Amino acid sequence: MLKFTLRRLAYVPVSLLFVSAVLFTVLRLTGNPIDTYLDINRTDEQVAALTKRLHLDQSLPVQFLIYLKDVLSGDFGQSLQFGEPAIHVVLERAGASIQLVTAALLIAAIIGILAGMACAVFKDKLPDFLISTLAVAAQSMPSFWLGILLIQFFAVQLRWLPTSGRGGWENLVLPAFTLAAYLLPNIILITRTSMLETLREQFVVTAIAKGLSGRQVLFRHALPNALNPIISFIGLQIGRLMGGAIITETIFAWPGIGRLMIGSIFQRDVPVVIAGVLIVSVVIVVANLAVDILLSINDPRIRLD
Amino acid sequence: MTPATDHELSPVLRKQDAPLLRVENLSVAFHTRNGLVRAIEEVSFEVPAGKVLGIVGESGSGKSVTALSLLRLIPSEIAEISSGSVWFGGRDLTRLSERELRRIRGREIAMIFQEPMTSLNPIASVGAQLREPMQLHLGMKAAEASRRVEELLDLVGIPQPRKRMTQYPHELSGGMRQRVMIAMALSCEPKLLIADEPTTALDVTTQAQILDLLRSLQSRLGLSIILITHDLGVVAQFADNVQVMYAGRAIEQAAVAEIFRQPAHPYTEGLLKIVADLEAECGRLSSIEGTVPAPHELPPGCAFAPRCPRSDTACTASPPPLSPISPGRRCACVRPVGFPQFRASA
Fold first, then answer.
1. Do residue A211 and residue B107 have CB atoms under 8 angstroms apart?
2. Residue B129: closest CA among B169, B171, B174, B163
3. What value does the mean pLDDT of chain B take?
4. Nearest CA-CA partner of B8 in B329, B244, B261, B342
5. Which of A8, A39, B4, B250 has a 20 to 30 A CA-CA distance from B163?
């Protein structure tokens, strides 16, 4: 188990080095950085100063090494919009995103797995039909619309929860549920399929023949065996949602990294974009590592490969 | 085990002491697109305490359905017990609530299956799976159950039990896994063990070891066993009594020695002939022409009649009932082999 974890850990720096290299290449491919940083009314002194600061007078390999050194020390330069170090801006927003995504994934996983199990147990009966129908309806409901409906009902009419912004847990509820609703249908369907497959296995009959109750068979024997595709799916979503929950972030004025990135791209705030891409990459790589470790804890056969 | 004297006291007719398990007219039907289809029909048998009943038949004869139905292990949306009773300890298992039945499963009646490769939970350790029935039924704490698991693994001939407990099923061979299944089945000291083709998926040497193990445990623990198999050789070695099944019906019941001396049903005779040919290693194997009819296309009369060398018009009217032909023997045939004096009133 320890050996497995260490081997997987070794991939982390390799992945991050690869991401850094791609990022550097893309930045240099998209044109002269001077044009990105400075507008049309620039002076020659400004150009000379920036050239020196960005080491553009050096050869590309040297530039890459300097860039790597900066990345490793967390120095991405000053944000052009905020006038503070880009890494500070990004880390603060990344924290908000991680909070939102974690809450949404937890909600979606708990509800989705339970609902998916109910579908599998009552296959082709009323609960299966109802849950599947609701799942399809939820999937076809866009986030911006669901978000607005939730705000209208829980914040404006009932006044239970704030409409937007970030603060205590009550600010988190509505955006987290909105984001969870987007994930829920997939988790339900994956759980349903995986459970149906597992329930046909011979060891389920063995478990019943031992004298276990239906619930014990489901939760002790069937669910752990059906869990792997669900864990993998949830792991993939962390990456997608970290930078991609822009609609939800916008509706609820949630200061997440997705909105920051979009804004920074339009503002040509290159240091923030670089820092943002790298931080999102770190989160994705760490999430994948966590998924691998979780899978191997759940299923001892995975440790062997 | 001396089958010759067993015959005189044949359990089938020995009414004075109640058998451990008595199955009466059990019928099971599967739900299919074309409605209900009978998988087993009016099957009756008894298992006396401490004895081994072998149930023999080809694939599709209903022997596994019989075994699974005793503990109601076929989900109700797939099949239902349409009639009959399963008497065990004064209770009819077909009428117990699910909760009452759970107290019998694994504790008083345990079961092992054909596929040791898939019968164990692949992601739970051997120790955890073995502890589970004892924690459930006997209220043991984990530490106490672990000590008992060690004893059980030792009992079923698994070396280094402490190490094996921490391993997972994929780290064990097929024979080892079947030993683990046996240890699990015996953990709560059940009165009856149902073994559904326990050696079919194993190679020949392992088969012999598992059978030896089952036999020694049976005599040491005074266990009753229902052994489902398609292998007459296994029955000959191991069982006290035999029930032969064909197309969902019991067609012959007898003590083992009797059936091998003189099979009564033409189907049993055909099966034994194949075994005899195999043992004599003569050039050509005999076979029974044709195949077992599917449950939804059974003929109106005896299901074996279309393949039977002795069949005549009397066989096609209605299925012959399982009737006594001599003390301790029953046969469902209007013209049983070697019993010319007997003519069923079918």
1. yes
2. B169
3. 87
4. B329
5. A8
Residue B282's pLDDT is 63
* B237: nearest Cα among B274, B263, B262, B210: B210
DSSP secondary structure letter of residue B292? P
| Closest by CA position to B310, among listed B321, B302, B318 | B302
The tens digit of pLDDT for each residue in A179-218 reads: 998 899 999 999 999 999 999 999 999 999 999 999 999 9
Cβ–Cβ contact A72 with B under 8 A: no
For domain B21-108+190-345, the CATH superfamily is P-loop containing nucleotide triphosphate hydrolases (3.40.50.300)
Measured CA distances, B274 to B60, B199, B242, B284, B285 (Å): 19, 20, 18, 10, 6
Calpha distance B110→B119 (Å, rounded):
13
Cα A121 from Cα B306, distance rounded (Å): 43
**Is A108 a domain residue?**
yes
Phi, psi of A21 (to 5 degrees): -65, -45
The β-bridge partners of B326 are B329
Which of B103, B119, B137, B166 has the highest number of chain A CBs within 10 A, making it the mutation to test binding with A? B119
Q: pLDDT digits over B216-227, tens only?
A: 999 888 899 999
What is the number of domains present in chain A? Answer: 1
Q: pLDDT band for B3, please (50, 70, 90 cuts).
A: very low
Helices (H), B161-291: 161-165, 174-186, 204-221, 232-238, 256-261, 266-280
A83 belongs to a structural domain: no
Return the bridge partners of B195, or none. Answer: B112, B227
Q: Is residue A28 part of a domain?
A: no
Cβ–Cβ gap A202/B136 under 8 Å = no
In a domain, A34, yes or no: no
pTM over 0.95: no
Cβ contact B103–A210 (<8 Å):
no
Strand partners of residue B24: B85
pLDDT digits (tens, 9 = 90+) for B238-270: 899 999 999 999 999 999 999 999 999 999 998
Higher pLDDT, A49 or B124: B124
CATH number of the domain where residue A173 is located: 1.10.3720.10
Containing structural domain, residue A129? 90-304
